[in-house]
Specification:
The protein has about 180 residues and is an alpha/beta fold. Helices cover about 35% and strands about 20% of the residues. The protein has one domain: Leucine Aminopeptidase, subunit E, domain 1 (3-Layer(aba) Sandwich), CATH 3.40.220. The chain has a seven-stranded mixed beta sheet with strand order 1-2-7-6-3-5-4, with helices on both faces.
């Protein structure tokens, strides 16, 4: 499902965040040390290769809510934005910190003239953020931010199961009202 809001195409899809053809940048749900790990960070680092880990060392550690830009190396995308989302109910205020991740990623992409971004649902895996709430924060943050962005034309949210995609589509539909 997709919708155009303020001239930006927003969509959700089932897939692998590390295999998003035609996008300028993918967003990594990173850990504070920007190292390979499980989930999204592991998938992106495995696909990008060892050079990504070498480059991320220059920026680590990062704080919750912070975002940094690196090259994409062996990914089909020239760039990666690494965001450290909050651990649910540990890093507080969780919603504000999660919103900052999306806002900072969008701002970084916009500043660098990047037009097409692919996001995971940040903090919804190992960091324990409930999927429904994480999607709500993601959509709210993105929709509120896009009016102030002049380069971004396409934002894709990549989820890893049918249940999450159904949730995303329902919440995106509700945003139209």
């Amino acid at each position: 499902m997709q919708r155009t809001i303020h001239g930006v195409l927003i969509e959700g899809t089932l897939g692998d965040i590390a295999n998003q053809q035609g996008f300028d940048v993918v967003v990594n749900a990173a850990n504070k040390d920007l190292k390979p790990g499980g989930g999204v960070a592991g998938a992106i680092h495995r696909a990008a290769g060892k050079a990504l880990e070498s480059e991320t060392r220059l920026f680590a550690p990062i704080e919750v809510g912070q975002a940094v830009l690196t090259r994409g190396f062996n990914l089909p995308n020239p760039y990666v934005i690494h965001c450290l989302g909050p651990v649910y109910k540990v890093d507080e205020p969780s919603e504000k910190l999660l919103r900052e991740c999306y806002e900072k990623a969008l701002s970084l992409a916009n500043t660098h003239g990047l037009k097409k971004l692919a996001f995971p649902i940040i903090s919804s895996g190992a960091f324990g953020y409930p999927m429904h709430e994480a999607i709500e924060v993601a959509l709210k943050s993105v929709i509120q931010s896009i009016e102030s962005l002049d380069n971004i034309t396409h934002i894709r949210f990549v989820v890893y199961n049918d249940s999450a995609l159904e949730m995303f589509e329902t919440l995106l539909k509700e945003r139209e009202r």
